[in-house]
Amino acid sequence: MSLIFFMGLAVAGAQNCISGDGRDAFDMYMPYHKKTVTVPAVPLSVTNYTYAADNAMVSIPAKCYDMYQAKLGLTPNWNDRQPGGPKGMFYFRISDPANEYEMLSEMGQSGCACGLVILAHGTSGVTWQSGSYGAMLSGMGYVVIAPDSHAMPASMGLKGVGKLKKTADIATANYCGKLNPYEETCGTWEFPFCYSTKTDNILNDRQTYREYVERNYMIRKLELDALVETYGSKLVSAWNKVFLLGRSEGAMTAARYYNPTLHQKLSGLILSGWSCEFNYFMSCADHAKVCGDQCAKTMPVLNINGKVDSYFGAQDSSVAATVAANTTHGYGGPITGNCRAAFTAQGFAKSTVVDFPGVSHSIMYSHDNALRSVLGDFLADPASDSSTWGSLKRQGCTLDAGIYECDADSGDQSPCVSYVTNPEAPFNFRGKLAGCAASTCFLKGIYQSNSFCGAAPVKAA
Asked: Cα Rg for the chain, rounded, in angstroms?
């Protein structure tokens, strides 16, 4: 009996897929934290997960704010990185879902924005880089909706921060800061899915950890399903361009996620800080496939990573590599640190992968200029040949084996220093802005004066 059990466990630890819909609770011991957590079953009804969309954080361009100021109230409160970046955008938390999603759909038909970006945030919620991306992209003319996983009610017993900040109470001045939209926090293991990734915890019991990460993905998947099923059909149909952008845990979610209503409208998929490969964040190789291998391979895809990402990088010290290298307790691999192998294996016709050498998991704090330029090019024309992008054909970028490597394009000044915006850092933008109503020439000194800002960029002063 014990021999049969051992053999089954060995296979399970290696490659078999585990679903996140298991109905049994289980205990998981984390030696790093010296704590045992009981992991409950995840409720599977989509109606349980509307909280994320109903409390989403939304970034809108200045032109949309001007057009809808009477409905939005307050004053412009959202700027891209200063000095040099766009100003006058608006950031708010959804508080009247039915009417505000109706307004966001109207924006799609009004011409006040270039497109819609649905942003899946990282583990810490709509904070730090996930918030900064909203400022960056709304400055480029896009409406950004970030469903808030941390708005989960405590009564569900899975995760959630408790009290949420109202729009007027969110400090938005420091682009490089936390941009914290929460009054409270969910402490590590305060709820089962308020976690902290530690190698010791993963290797202690790979079987339970693999089931744990699948349940974690199920939560994020159902939150996106709730957005799409409650508001998505009308919302996405109102926009000519729709993108799904994931950051870190959100990028893992966006990469795996597939919903026909959304994906038939997607103009492109952007994955920041994720590698699209079998590692500790999923139970098997099949679950690493982009959109479960169900989406059209003509969909443009963009992957951006720090080359020495502490979680997913190919270097021996990353969590993914350490776990995969452990032949008795680990799983996953081979670890490459980016999505190139996956994009090629799945046959995506329009795929771009950019690595930033020397950069760990947090990209924008050192490489904000380079990141913004790449995103600008992709959003403006996702199906275009990336070899023609100003962000990638510049000095400071090289291409090898289908992977671009680029420097920060910031000279000797980091855009962020100790999580505070550095006023000495140049604001360089070498990408392209979409030729739409929102893309007026706000990037003075960077774009030539035209009827719209789709012209070739000139070097920042």
From this structure: 21
Q: How many Å apart are CA 271 and CA 249, to the nearest integer?
A: 10
Nearest to residue 304, comparing CAs of 256, 248, 258? 248
Structure tokens at 338: 């980016």
Query: Is the pTM here over 0.85, yes or no?
Result: yes
pLDDT in tens, 43-58: 999 999 999 999 999 9
Task: For residue 247, give Cα distances in angstroms to 201, 304, 363.
Answer: 23, 10, 10
CA 104 vs CA 57, 72, 125, 269: distances in Å: 12, 11, 22, 20
In tens, the pLDDT along 241-287 reads 999 999 999 999 999 999 999 999 999 999 999 999 999 999 999 99
Distances (CA, A) of 106 to 196, 217, 241: 40, 31, 14
Residue type, 340: R
Q: CA–CA distance from 453 to each of 108, 129, 167, 358, 445 (Å)?
A: 20, 26, 31, 33, 12
> Which tokens is 152 given?
């989960």
